[in-house]
Task: structure prediction
Amino acid sequence: MQKKRVLITGATSGIGKATAELLARDGFPLLLMGRRVHLLRDLVHKLVSENTVDVQAWSVDVRDREALEKNISQNQHLLKDLGVIVNNAGLARGVTSFQEGELSDWDDVIATNVTGVLNVTRLFLPFLLEQKQGYIVNIGSVAGRWVYPGGTIYNASKFALRAINDGLRMDLLGKNIRVTNIEPGMVNTEFSLVRLGDEKKAESVYEGMTPLQANDIAETISWCLQRPPHVNIQELVIYPTAQASPYHVFRE
Ligand code: NDP
Ligand code: 8X3
Result:
């Protein structure tokens, strides 16, 4: 059977990139999104030269509703076979206390992790509904289950994602659209660099322990997508073995 197209946001790095690589190998046509054009271009080139799938890419910011709408209206033909939305683009900024937080950082986090997911889901959902089937995978976090000091705004964004997941599942009941929230613990990607703004500090996050790799999460996404249509994995919490909670990390 012809595989449906998978939209992946935040495909230029980390979990999104690893998922694009794995799903291309699995034979899924792709629509990739991210802001860094050169990284998207390189990835598309790699994927089409190594696989026999169609790979499209849009350089777009998930916060920019108008840009999303413009791309959608210009590419209706491409979206006819859209079957899966992977809401992966996301970030944290800083680990400072609430009272010292930068308001512009907060805007970035909420606009990307919450409004971005709402934008993408609302605007692309009609293509799934049209086909009377579909799958929405959201990349949450353990930060959406356990609050930690210095994480309030990021925590709030990932707690919000859980509400969005549950609400979608209820509102879409009977529409044959599955909704999964994947909630990883520490994954070694550009996440810590973006959050801390410094290579050394980012490396120290994973010092003396073995974190998850982006491909561990990509494999999980691929597994979820390939369950039989009557099976919906609603939520999955995935920690590295060396991490028991956001507060408990074992370091050699
Ligand atoms: P990375 O920083 O490696 O990747 C983040 C991706 O999101 C990049 O491709 C980036 O691309 C994209 N992105 C960020 N902001 C925007 C935006 N406004 N519009 C479009 N794309 C955007 O981090 P991860 O792979 O780790 O993060 C992926 C998801 O996993 C996030 O939602 C994160 O919260 C979640 N997560 C990460 C964990 C970790 O420990 N790494 C643990 C639990 C969850 P570009 O800059 O090109 O736009
Ligand atoms: C990223 C994992 O524990 O840094 O979502 O919040 S954590």
User: Anything to note?
Assistant: The first strand starts at residue 5 and ends at 9. The chain has eight helices and eleven strands. Residues 115 and 160 are 10 Å apart (CA to CA). Residues 141-143, 151, 185-186, 246 surround 2-hydroxyethylsulfonic acid (ligand 2) (CB under 6 Å).
